[in-house]
Amino acid sequence: MMLRTTVFLIIFGLSLTYCRGAYKDVLWLVDASSSVSADDHALTMGFIYNVTSYLTIGDNDIRMGVVKFDDEANALFELDDNNNKASLLSAINSISYTQSTVSSRKTMDALTYTRTLYLSIKGGRSDAGKVVIVIESGPSTNTPLTITKANDLRTSYGAEVFAIGIGSDLSKTNDELQGIANDPDSYYVEYIGGFINLCGIVPSILPKIDNETTATMLDGCDEWVEPTTAEITSTERMTEATISQTNEGLDIGAVVGILLSCLLILAILACVLYLLYKRKRRKDKKDQISPEDDIVKAVNEYNDTSLGEKRHMYKRDTSNISITPTKTMSEKDTMFTVYENLEKEVSHHITFLVDTTAGVSKDEFHQIVDFIYNITSRLTIGTNDNMVALVTFNTSPKTEFDLNDKSDKSSVLDAITSIKNHSLTGSRETHFALSYIGDNIYVQSSGMRTDAQSSMLLIRYGQSVTPTQTQFAALFLLSTVQTIYVIGVGSLMFETTERIDFFQT
Ligand SMILES: *[C@@H]1O[C@H](CO)[C@@H](O)[C@H](O)[C@H]1NC(C)=O
Ligand SMILES: *[C@@H]1O[C@H](CO)[C@@H](O)[C@H](O)[C@H]1NC(C)=O
């Protein structure tokens, strides 16, 4: 108890020192199609510069990247290119103008490309808040797809996506702006009449990036008000702004004082909890990743080589991959870590891919089946929740059941138990199994829903017979499956006394 109190106090003290700005990865997607003039460009960069000048920038605070797009998207700089404010501001300042010859805006491609910038290899921090701010002066060439891609960012990264629409080709109620932006649109959509008005939205955008920062309207910058619907706009703003002023009978000063004190205490508490959570997340991560694992290598190579904008990239937790070799984890810790990762707010399609070669004893195999059973028994199973498939493999893979074969938990659990009497034999052709999963499990005919996250847990007792092909197969599978967990079991995998080892790629 004493110790806990002391630790708490130390963290409390630290939190006061460290809890400064927001901890977010912010990406600006800036229209650079031919309609944008040199003046427009200068105003846009001035806007980003001004917003940035109020923020706390750094590896423990905000990281920022800027992407410009017309029919192609290019990062001008990425999240980890500037780790302090001075260098970031000067990077923004030095973004030069090139008149585009292309009038089409492929905002959807820019949004897809943005996903790659959130990878850890590009400076994305998996535990940071994700903010995407799209600035457009007209609609994209494919509004439905643009909206889908913005939705993907929300689903895979929990990103907050803002849309800033400029000029007469758009409006505050434009479908595309509203579809790109998170809800409510009154908060996430900004619409202004011209680039010249960007200056006037600095005070409104800024606290949405860092809620502890405010800016006052600069002299000479005016809030843009749409001529015909001026009243509607200002009423909306008023309702937001006046909530705290409705206690007319009370002494406003005292109320504000009390509110501020409460806010301060709440903020400090939130900071402490957040720091504890962050520490735990970091620790978990450190424990989970082995740079030597062939699939981890494949992920790394994939990230290094093919930041193919045109390819689909999904959320994969690859942070710190090059730093620490994995620590062996006990079966229990492994289970909790996997479980913790699966039971998040979104539903998952989970495939267990289980090695049935002779690498382990019958007894050990039973424990592995129990392990799968235990994870599954903790999950909410159903067609609108998590769905589970089970594939076993040795020389060739075999579907034990598909995602949509079993609709309730007890039949899933029964089917898991029934693989206990499989004979353990054959050779470890992991690459066949990985391609098989991509071709047969994560397809709509097997029950895959597009709104769920795909996760796979590979449990195996040794390296595959063809490591290179396995790496390739893993690489391909990563275009469909967002998270692959690799659990190596037994002495053939690692020289450790512990039985189960765990990585997350
Ligand atoms: C940025 O700030 C400067 C003054 O610091 C102001 O003159 C300029 O209009 C601002 N520009 C934008 C686009 O906010
Ligand atoms: C700012 O946001 C953080 C995280 O959502 C929250 O914990 C904190 O209380 C907020 N601060 C204010 C002043 O609203």
Automatic annotation (TrEMBL):
<feature type="signal peptide">
    <location>
        <begin position="1"/>
        <end position="21"/>
    </location>
</feature>
<feature type="transmembrane region" description="Helical">
    <location>
        <begin position="252"/>
        <end position="277"/>
    </location>
</feature>
<feature type="transmembrane region" description="Helical">
    <location>
        <begin position="472"/>
        <end position="494"/>
    </location>
</feature>
<dbReference type="InterPro" id="IPR002035">
    <property type="entry name" value="VWF_A"/>
</dbReference>
<keyword id="KW-0812">Transmembrane</keyword>
<protein>
    <recommendedName>
        <fullName>VWFA domain-containing protein</fullName>
    </recommendedName>
</protein>
<feature type="domain" description="VWFA">
    <location>
        <begin position="25"/>
        <end position="209"/>
    </location>
</feature>
<dbReference type="InterPro" id="IPR050525">
    <property type="entry name" value="ECM_Assembly_Org"/>
</dbReference>
<feature type="domain" description="VWFA">
    <location>
        <begin position="349"/>
        <end position="505"/>
    </location>
</feature>
<keyword id="KW-0732">Signal</keyword>
<dbReference type="Pfam" id="PF00092">
    <property type="entry name" value="VWA"/>
</dbReference>
<dbReference type="InterPro" id="IPR036465">
    <property type="entry name" value="vWFA_dom_sf"/>
</dbReference>
<keyword id="KW-1133">Transmembrane helix</keyword>
<keyword id="KW-0472">Membrane</keyword>
